[in-house]
Amino acid sequence: MDVRVATVTLTFADPMRTAFGVLRKRELQLLRLRDADGAVGWGEAAPLEPYDGISAAKVRDAFEAYEEILRAGDGDPAPDLLERCRIVADVPQALAAVDLALWDLAGNREGKPISALISDDPATEVRVNAT
N or C end of the chain, less CB within 10 A? Predict the structure, then answer.
């Protein structure tokens, strides 16, 4: 499987006040997995060190530790890949990105939204909070 990671910095249109300070931008790390058949899955890690204590560098290091596992894992069950990644670097933000990318990849392989993979009757909409 082809594994790529890119760092993206998003700047807020207006600063966001939080309990620990003002956020003006967020750095995200995007994970892209492409299988041998060309299907793609995307995941993102969004550490926020002042809040969760995890630095962007720690997430990048985790992705480096996961890379060989994911490259060699094309066709392996997603839960097995995720557990192998957890064993080498138990970084929740990075593992969440891997989990998302593997689900997205599965949905794209099947030509279905992820909700259709996990439910016989998926919701047609989900209420969310917009910041």
Answer: C
**8 A C-beta contact, residue 31 and residue 102:** no
Distance in angstroms (rounded) separating the CA atoms of residues 78 and 107: 12
Contact call for residues 63 and 94 (beta carbons, < 8 A):
yes
Q: pTM score, two decimals? A: 0.90
125 pLDDT higher than 90: no
Q: Which of 34, 26, 30 is nearest to 59 (CA)?
A: 30
Measure CA of the first residue to CA of the last residue in the chain; give whole Å: 35
Nearest 5°: the CA angle 88, 79, 76 is: 90
1-47 confidence digits (pLDDT tens): 999 999 999 999 999 998 878 999 999 999 999 999 999 999 999 99
Report the percent of the chain where pLDDT is more than 90. Answer: 83
The CA radius of gyration of the chain, in Å to the nearest whole number, is: 16
SS (H, E, C) 32-83: EEECCCCCEEEEEECCCHHHHCCCHHHHHHHHHHHHHHHHHCCCCCHHHHHH
10, 26 contact by CB (below 8 A): yes
